[in-house]
Amino acid sequence: MENLQSKLILSNGVKMPWLGLGVFKVEEGPELVQAVKAAIKNGYRLIDTAAIYGNEAGVGQGIQESIRETGLKREDLFITSKVWNDGLNYEDTIKAFRVSLEKLGLDYLDLYLIHWPGVEQYKEAWKALEDLYKQGLIRAIGVSNFQVHHLEDLAKISEIKPMLNQVEHHPKLTQQDLRKYAKENGIQLQAWSPLMQGQLLDHSLLEEIAEKHGKAVAQVIIRWNLQSGIATIPKSTKEHRIVANGDVFDFQLSAEDMEAIDALNENLRVGPDPDTFNF
Which percentage of the chain shows pLDDT scores above 90? Predict the structure, then answer.
């Protein structure tokens, strides 16, 4: 991990940037387009969106304008979207994927995820993702917010293993059991809400570690995720914060730092519980 273009390798051999930009709760409009463009201009290559965010068209506009203005090619970027809970039968998943592709203005996606496990229908959705993957329309397929038991159930009926599981992950929710299962089964974890929606930015221990390294608390948390082997997609629309969130490759947390941050775990969520959240 040397810079924002540094990549990990998914189980199918596809290379994915460790760090990317998330756009959850960023509405369509100029702010969104400029955030995507600012991220790409400043070295980001991974942009993560979802159907339910209602902003795929703006993300697509930011991507197209960035390609024109920077000279980058489509294949230089890694674009993720997700199918929502209302489209988890086979046909609806195929349809949802094509709508996302059209809104983004792309010919393929680098990664497509089932957004939440919901109820048993995610098994139908997975079959659709497998078929889209075989057709070459998606370079990698995965899930989001899946617990160990969801992954175990999916393994019983799947032909292709999920390559990635995107989950809430931060110092108050370290997901140790899920991390262990993912490592044993070749599933890459990716953290959403790595900063716990800003709730950790004034934590005394994290401030102490940040001061020691001459960094901001947000940068320490992002670095902790990366050193834990977890890809990360912090969200911001402000260019200076986007730049700061990406400035995490010039320092390293010690083993003591890592253990101290791990010890902050309280199994505390800021998002919904995957076992109870359906729509």
Answer: 94
Give dist(CA 133, CA 141) in Å, integer: 7
The H or E element spanning position 273 is none
Question: Which CATH number does the domain housing residue 132 bear?
Answer: 3.20.20.100
Helix (H) or strand (E) holding 225: helix 217-227
Does the residue 1 lie in any domain?
Answer: no
DSSP letter string, 81-150: EEE-GGG-SHHHHHHHHHHHHHHHT-S-EEEEEES--TTTTHHHHHHHHHHHHHTTSEEEEEEES--HHH
Is residue 279's pLDDT more than 70? no
Is the Cβ–Cβ distance between 58 and 105 less than 8 Å?
Answer: no
Q: Is 53 a catalytic residue?
A: yes
Total structural domains in the chain? 1
Is residue 269 assigned to a domain? no
Q: Is residue 268 in a domain?
A: no
Q: Is residue 195 part of a domain?
A: yes
**Catalytic residue selected from 53, 112, 122, 133:** 53
Residue range(s) defining the domain that contains residue 52: 7-262
Report pTM.
0.96
3-state helix, strand, coil in the chain (%, to 5): 45, 15, 40
